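Human: Here is a favour to ask of a fellow structure person. Comparing notes only helps if you start from a blank page. Give me a protein, with the fold worked out from its sequence. Please set it down just below, with no commentary around it:

Assistant:
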Amino acid sequence: MHQAISLPQVAKRRKYGFGIVSTALLIAVMAVSAISPASGEEVYKIGGDVKPPKLVHKEEPKYTKRAEKQRLHGMVVIAAIINSRGIIENVQITKGVDPDLDAEAVKAVSKWRFRPAEKKGKPVAVRVRIEVNFRAPW
């Protein structure tokens, strides 16, 4: 069974263009160690002697015109690995809202950069769950 640990909120609500508000929250997922298909690194679970990664660069997802016109909103949940260089890889949508918003969430999150997680002072890859909320003030 997986157990989630909530990290501090990594983004605050911000207004963009047409009064659209988006938020994002990073949640580390406790999972069995594995090997990252992209980098070949061992992927650790956060906790114990593995310290979580720290967000150092974030890009907000864009609310598409079609999604705004149709008043679409909701949370896109993404599973990914943050490698030992602080780069997101193996991005997968685990819960989508709409193909356009899902794509915008993946595009934005793929540009995020982190100070890597650490185990005994050395950078390591970890599995994470990222929630991207799309909300519009109708």
